[in-house]
């Protein structure tokens, strides 16, 4: 059971990103780009990791203001750890998502971020939850978010199949991220993907030059 | 009023144009069966997007100018000429107009060609998408387009794209119109809502 630490020295407000989470047969893949931008024309960081581990098998990714995202996830991480100690068992993904939802809903005037929570638990297996800007919680087989997601709605609608294998899902997520990064100017950098299964957590980083290329590149 | 989701694709020997059929004014659908593929000449069509009034006016003006031009040169006009006429109007009245026309057709010299004329730019591309619904399908067309598709593949590609855009964009919907232009002429087709391809629906 590894712990991935996120570097929290991030400056500036980021409102551009592409995030997604997809379930497959036996697990879930959560992914994002790595660009943090300020004001739409300055890239403050090319390699930030927007995938945050809130518990051993539960990850979150953030779209929207980075400062808000960090504040919420820190609080959520604490509450989920406390909950898990009280329950004496690993938390359910739904519990983690509910914690995020409560925080988003109760602070909806001040916050500007949307969250995707994905993970694996013993009760229901792999799950993906999305918390939209107003604090609505939805459980879905896959979901996309962030400014870059508008460009891949068509692609993900067409290409998602239930019960994919791990490799198919990895290919699907990588393609979707590459396509969004190719069209959205505030998404870019490398593709971060985390594969969560019963057996553990695996972090895959695909640098820009190894991303799939499409017809005009 | 604004109209949305148009696409044009080149194939070896012609072009396929496609569009949805919804015209909305704010939240109301004003016309649910409008054909946004407008004839400019026998083998040159344009796809309208943006403000309905502006787009239709540009198309009518260019239709007239093309007729005069083709009488003057004594033969069918080139697709590039039609696109240039559209571009001239779009560029000159850039501040007043808000319409984007994609011009596509077949001529003897260049075969099937697709031109974009956004904001007064003129550029030839293998395929083009436009309108508000196009944002949602950029990823899909980037991934699925391949050079050298056959006519049937192209038609399927266009229908799939429009179907995906209609299911995500609130200002696109209704039926799908398709026009296939090749050496022999232009063939118009209308695909009803219930015959459109469906994808995995959450």
From TrEMBL, chain A:
Residues annotated as the enzyme's active site: 17 (nucleophile)
Similarity remark: Belongs to the peptidase T1B family.
What is the first-listed, main subcellular location in coarse terms?
cytoplasm
Cellular component (GO) terms are: cytoplasm; nucleus; proteasome core complex, beta-subunit complex
Q: Which PANTHER family match?
A: ATP-DEPENDENT PROTEASE SUBUNIT HSLV, METALLOPROTEASE TLDD
One GO term of the biological process aspect:
immune system process
Q: Give one GO molecular function term.
A: threonine-type endopeptidase activity
Q: What does this protein do?
A: Component of the proteasome, a multicatalytic proteinase complex which is characterized by its ability to cleave peptides with Arg, Phe, Tyr, Leu, and Glu adjacent to the leaving group at neutral or slightly basic pH. The proteasome has an ATP-dependent proteolytic activity. The proteasome is a multicatalytic proteinase complex which is characterized by its ability to cleave peptides with Arg, Phe, Tyr, Leu, and Glu adjacent to the leaving group at neutral or slightly basic pH. The proteasome has an ATP-dependent proteolytic activity. This subunit is involved in antigen processing to generate class I binding peptides.
Keyword Cell wall biogenesis/degradation assigned: no
Domain of life where this protein originates = Eukaryota
- Outline the subunit composition: Component of the proteasome complex. The 26S proteasome consists of a 20S proteasome core and two 19S regulatory subunits. The 20S proteasome core is composed of 28 subunits that are arranged in four stacked rings, resulting in a barrel-shaped structure. The two end rings are each formed by seven alpha subunits, and the two central rings are each formed by seven beta subunits. The catalytic chamber with the active sites is on the inside of the barrel.
Pfam families in the record, alphabetically?
Proteasome (PF00227)
InterPro entries recorded: Ntn_hydrolases_N (IPR029055), Pept_T1A_subB (IPR000243), Proteasome_bsu_CS (IPR016050), Proteasome_sua/b (IPR001353), Proteasome_suB-type (IPR023333)
Q: Has UniProt tagged this entry with the keyword Nucleus?
A: yes
Q: Which residues form a coiled coil?
A: none
This chain's source organism reads Esox lucius
Locations listed in the record: Cytoplasm; Nucleus
What is the recorded name of this protein? Proteasome subunit beta
Keywords from UniProt, A to Z, are: Cytoplasm, Hydrolase, Immunity, Nucleus, Protease, Proteasome, Threonine protease, Zymogen
Which Gene3D superfamilies would you find in this protein's record?
Glutamine Phosphoribosylpyrophosphate, subunit 1, domain 1
As its record notes, the protein acts as a catalyst of: Cleavage of peptide bonds with very broad specificity
TrEMBL record, chain B:
Q: Which Pfam families match?
A: Proteasome
Q: Which GO terms describe its molecular function?
A: threonine-type endopeptidase activity
Active-site positions, per UniProt?
4
Q: Name one GO biological process term.
A: immune system process
Q: Which reaction does it catalyse?
A: Cleavage of peptide bonds with very broad specificity
The highest taxon in the source lineage is Eukaryota
Subcellular localization: Cytoplasm; Nucleus
What's in the GO CC field?
cytoplasm; nucleus; proteasome core complex
**Swiss-Prot/TrEMBL keywords:** Cytoplasm, Hydrolase, Immunity, Nucleus, Protease, Proteasome, Threonine protease, Zymogen
What is the similarity comment for this entry? Belongs to the peptidase T1B family.
Give the record's subunit note: The 26S proteasome consists of a 20S proteasome core and two 19S regulatory subunits. The 20S proteasome core is composed of 28 subunits that are arranged in four stacked rings, resulting in a barrel-shaped structure. The two end rings are each formed by seven alpha subunits, and the two central rings are each formed by seven beta subunits. The catalytic chamber with the active sites is on the inside of the barrel. Component of the immunoproteasome, where it displaces the equivalent housekeeping subunit PSMB6.
State the protein's purpose: The proteasome is a multicatalytic proteinase complex which is characterized by its ability to cleave peptides with Arg, Phe, Tyr, Leu, and Glu adjacent to the leaving group at neutral or slightly basic pH. The proteasome has an ATP-dependent proteolytic activity. This subunit is involved in antigen processing to generate class I binding peptides. Component of the proteasome, a multicatalytic proteinase complex which is characterized by its ability to cleave peptides with Arg, Phe, Tyr, Leu, and Glu adjacent to the leaving group at neutral or slightly basic pH. The proteasome has an ATP-dependent proteolytic activity.
The molecule here is called Proteasome subunit beta
Q: Which organism is it from?
A: Esox lucius
